[in-house]
TrEMBL record:
It comes from Actinoplanes utahensis. Keywords: Membrane, Transmembrane, Transmembrane helix. This is Glycosyl transferase. It comes from the Bacteria. The keyword Transmembrane helix applies. The chain crosses the membrane at residues 21-43, 110-133, 145-165, 192-209, 215-231, 243-263, 317-334, 341-359, 379-401, 413-430.
Length: 582
């Protein structure tokens, strides 16, 4: 391919739709690698928690529990009143993964949300790898080995392994290669209506898996289209009419189906605008491009911590040889206009991931970057900036696959480089920690005797981001059978005065008191018992349960005794009954 768009190349070569034995081998290989990565979690999926980001592991348990209630109890899909009582949570404004969680609701119901999380992450890694292998081998490449390399990279790149430590939505990317392929095929004559409708339906499906990844894909394809049209003007003039018409059909198809869900997301109760952090807080470090990721066999936790914002945001980390081979692939393929445009799109998104100012080796250089001009644009302001780097990570896999397919000269040297690039990046099993087990009070259903309809069960520490992960986990593993206040989710910070995005509900006297005691070891001089009782009434609390074994648990107990009196010991935990408000 020297200058043609990918769709034109696919049109002139025979399609190979028949399933072959090698495809089975590739699929099983990807699945085996994914199981290896998630092996420690599979050993006890409902009892263990991913250590890289246990907070986000908990939030996806919440999404699965909500979907279980939609299927088994007829709950509304776009909102829940079982979490953050009495306000509830706008599920469309959160990463509710409904397209994944609803079909798997029976698994969540009978085996527990932990099993579903393990299955989704395992299937996400393997499925994304195989989806890219399928598109590359069926439509774009001659060599299945090259397609396997592309799939392996796109499914198990350092960015994917990093997000697998807690982000269920960001590893289930198997719809994206088909969206890309359908967009490219719109350049073919006669595909305006059929191709546009298919693309629109794929967009709807992706919206209910991961909107952020769809945004990245749309931006990348937009940059690709502009760059390709500028370099292949004659071809662009021939295809732009039916291409844009196909995009219009896709927009109409998806717009009709998504009108209400997106309205609810951005304008319904519990909507928010912006993120609870500045764009400069979560950006890609330039030095991370050539470093090894922490979860690779050659990785260093200490180095990765310095160059990355968290264990689930190692979005580059190509390794020295990997970075060199990506550059080599770009040079080898530069004569192809389509692949040159692909490279440009990847570089533009990489530049966006650096944020408003360049950071190098953990140090802010103060050098301004273009992202500063668009950081406050609506929708863009909802994105974690460093995640733009997931695009060049995928583009790298595509370039490596095409280079492996096209390389003619110095083949031996190229393949030596590929081995040196890929082997050090081989992923290690993700680390896990043992969660605090649920007490008999919950597992035996004893709580039902204490929580009448319309009342809540309050765990202390309160369900919240970081500080109350056990309470949130217990509630979600029970599929939200008992409602609970607060929790880790995205919502407005202080409605109606401030609708900036926040990771939890607005604080009350009691929530701030318990947070200061648990996290900062700050016992109060005196406890305002009336304020505590007012908060419990607001939360419709029927019983308060102290989670055993938590940080500063003795101090928390002292505060609860001061406000509520001595507890009862029931089913392995200390509880305080809260009388109904008169």
């Amino acid at each position: 391919m020297t200058g043609e768009p990918a769709a034109q190349v696919a049109e002139r070569r025979p399609r190979r739709w028949r399933w072959r034995s090698i495809d089975t081998v590739v699929l099983l290989g990807f699945l085996g690698l994914a199981v290896l990565v998630l092996g420690r979690l599979w050993a006890d999926p409902n009892g263990r928690v991913l250590d890289g980001n246990d907070d986000d592991h908990g939030i996806f348990l919440f999404m699965l529990a909500h979907a279980e209630r939609v299927v088994f109890d007829g709950a509304a899909p776009f909102v829940t009143d079982r979490f953050n009582v009495p306000v509830g949570v706008n599920m469309m404004a959160n990463t509710s993964i409904l397209a994944l969680a609803l079909p798997l609701a029976p698994l969540t119901h009978f085996l527990g949300g932990g099993v579903t999380v393990a299955l989704l992450i395992t299937g996400g890694l393997a499925g994304t790898a195989f989806a890219w292998y399928w598109v590359l081998s069926r439509h774009l490449l001659e060599s299945r080995l090259a397609a396997w390399i592309g799939g392996l990279w796109c499914g198990f790149a350092p960015a994917m392994i990093s997000h697998a430590a807690g982000h269920v939505n960001f590893v289930n990317n198997y719809v994206l290669p088909f969206i890309v392929w359908q967009v490219l095929r719109l350049a073919e004559p006669g595909r305006v209506r059929r191709g546009g409708i298919v693309l629109g339906l794929l967009i709807v499906l992706q919206i209910f898996i991961n909107e952020e990844a769809l945004l990245f894909t749309a931006l990348t394809l937009g940059v690709f289209a502009v760059a390709w049209a500028a370099m292949a003007r004659d071809e662009a003039r021939r295809v732009w009419r039916h291409f844009t018409a196909g995009i219009g059909v896709a927009a109409l198809t998806s717009g009709v189906l998504l009108a209400y869900p997106l309205w609810y997301q951005f304008f319904g109760p519990g909507n928010y605008h912006g993120q609870p952090f500045r764009p400069t807080d979560y950006v890609t470090d330039l030095a991370s491009l050539g470093a090894f990721p922490r979860q690779s066999v050659a990785g260093s936790e200490a180095i990765a911590q310095r160059l990355s914002v968290s264990a689930t945001e190692d979005n580059t980390f190509f390794g020295p040889a990997g970075l060199v081979m990506i550059l080599v692939a770009a040079v080898v393929l530069w004569r192809s206009v389509a692949l040159r445009a692909t490279t440009i799109a990847g570089l533009v998104l990489l530049l966006m991931s650096f944020g408003p100012k360049l950071r190098v080796a953990g140090q802010d250089t103060g050098i301004p970057l273009p992202f500063g001009l668009i950081s406050h644009v609506p929708v863009i302001d909802l994105v974690s900036v460093t995640r733009f780097a997931m695009v060049p990570a995928t583009v790298a896999g595509v370039l490596l696959a095409f280079a492996a397919d096209r390389i003619r000269r110095r083949r031996r040297l190229f393949w030596i480089g590929m081995v040196l690039a890929l082997v050090p990046l081989a992923p290690k099993p993700l680390p896990v920690v043992q969660g605090i087990p649920m007490p008999e009070f919950l597992t035996a259903g004893t709580w039902r005797q204490y929580v009448p309809e319309g009342r809540t069960l309050v765990t202390v520490p309160l369900p919240d981001v970081t500080s109350g992960r056990t309470g949130q986990r217990w509630a979600t593993l029970n599929n939200l059978d008992y409602p609970t206040p607060r929790g880790y989710f995205m919502g407005p910070a202080r409605p109606p005065f401030d609708d900036t995005g926040s990771w939890s509900a607005p604080h009350t006297y009691t929530s701030r008191l318990l947070l200061n005691v648990q996290m900062y070891n700050r016992p109060p001089v005196a406890v305002d018992r009336a304020a505590v009782l007012a908060d419990l009434a607001y939360w419709r609390a029927a019983v308060v349960v102290l989670v055993p074994g938590v940080r500063n648990g003795d101090l928390l107990r002292t505060v609860l005794v001061g406000a509520l009196g001595e507890p009862q010991w029931v089913g392995g935990v200390e509880i305080w009954r809260v009388p109904p408000e008169e």
